[in-house]
């Protein structure tokens, strides 16, 4: 053989070898990175870590949880969307993806992700201090309607954060001007609840799960849950519909997402493992004991849910002047 | 009595004890690596605790976090790489002592007073949890505003040089703290469209740069004139602390009490506790001029204070399920999973579990003495390396540590920038400590001020409306005016005589 035939042949073998390798080696052949856009120790981190642990057993390769925090989740979500779509980088997506682009923080939307499944949802609620005069949500609503603006103040997340939008959405659904309840930004629901018990604010519209210990200690009274049905953990707390007749509903969710255009076989294997992990006894028990809501939606349904929230949150933010 | 016996049996189970030793070693290792924090050590343990018995699970977290907090002081003392903002308060004293060949005294003090602070905090946790938690619940943004302001005032007291230079450093820190969108308005500031800057200036990479990289740069410029840190011997490491305890009993007690009380407040924590304690120590010291130049007195008070604060943070966590710091935030989740739901009733309904938890706390702190001693022994070998080789190693540590915090190259860039800033500051006799304080407390001050103003509809007097806020406010103003008042009194005395 002369050089002219050897070189193309060699090139062909190399190319073939290059293309053949991924097909021969079973996915996954190396550790998988799971990006959590929020800090170590928070709720999303806890769900990410336990999910990663179970996923690791299903896939037989380590799943490393990496916290990429900052910028209200923009940094971490960008890192997931911009990763190489080879199935070795996945991440936990949170409802903030439906808010940040309306705020003008990023161009990124849920459309830039491949949403593999939704694995948790916690409905928003209404909580007041135990020594507050309101025994039900209707009474609270009537005070907000009748008394001068600022009589009731709310807290529980940052300015324009998800529980702030929950409050605004509720007020709009009741036909109350949004200025009636000024919002006091806080570092998360725990800080807002503490401030409420200390007498700093009057209500916290966060998820009831976040107020569980204070509800149990009879320091905080739960008035409503923004869900279709009552929550299993709080059977005595009425839904918002029951309490005031409002149709407003909002749940924060956590989904497992990946960058777009993953190889189909990796995607198939990954989604199967995620479904198994969701149904595992460990995950179910963990979520129940932590007080997190269990909610499963496979890829298609999950994407539809995320899209619906994107539209409704966009509307609230535009009306409230929070959108850019 | 039988309840207590049951609790002891739970803890002194071979499996639990083994878990404690192993997680202690793990905590020491993680804490000693710059950039890996006690919070990280705890978060990494959670998926493993899922498969453990309740007491073993809690024991592993308590032990690992306590060890990690202490071992974060080791790279600070040896290489001037502080592990946490809390240990940054006294890193200069510890590092100077190592350079003067008194490294064993510095490390010994950090170890012994960490243990004492931890044990003291635990005793308060056992005896006074419900009462202290009630008081902590009365703190809202008005009270925290004054507390943070008091912490910032500490910058003036810790500043080793002149007051104006301390103020310059403080302002550098405060300006850096303005970057990002994690402020009350959620409006991006000084980000120039950069996604990484949206998250703000992460203070651990900044701190590593300001202290450690600046030191490397100085070595590059000044060469051997800076004097190499001497490898400390571990001989008499613990025994050498007996005279220190005898010499500074008041400082030790003050650090313990301050640390526990501030730690019990959900919005404060070990960082503020250490800085306030260090400032107090200097303010009341008979030799304040020695602070920042390798003096053990500040180590005693602030070192005890931050470990006491770590135990104190469990008070609101156990009684009301309110996290006192980022570690207890994780712990609360684990408590729920293990069926130990936090709440005032936990002390009655689950007495044997809660007693076992207290025993674990005491045991973990005592375990710190032998394990900490071994860790110091292992860590000091790094100073046997010749300085020419040591400096690149420190640079490498700095880069790894900065990367570990942000999980991106951005952390390294941040660290390098702040290294240069730190070098320029020290070349011009501007102290570094106040800049760190500004960076850590600046965002808190802004947040508590803005939220208080929203709540009070813009009335400034609201900062004095609530009794605790009024007390703290008057105290802060008195601290500011103390030098003026003292001068006025002196003048009057002179006029009379």
Automatic annotation (TrEMBL), chain A:
Gene3D superfamilies according to UniProt: Bordetella uptake gene, domain 1, Periplasmic binding protein-like II
Keywords, ordered alphabetically: Signal
SUPFAM superfamilies assigned: Periplasmic binding protein-like II
Endpoints of the signal sequence: 1-25
Protein origin, superkingdom: Bacteria
PANTHER family: BLR1237 PROTEIN, TRICARBOXYLATE-BINDING PROTEIN
Family, as annotated: Belongs to the UPF0065 (bug) family.
UniProt protein name: Tripartite tricarboxylate transporter substrate binding protein
TrEMBL record, chain B:
Cytoplasm in keyword set: no
Signal peptide residue numbers: none
Top-level taxonomic group: Bacteria
Domain DUF112: 17-437
Spans through the membrane: 16-36, 48-70, 106-132, 144-160, 197-221, 256-278, 313-337, 353-373, 393-424, 436-456, 468-485
Record key words, sorted: Membrane, Transmembrane, Transmembrane helix
InterPro entries per UniProt: DUF112_TM
Record-given protein name: C4-dicarboxylate ABC transporter permease
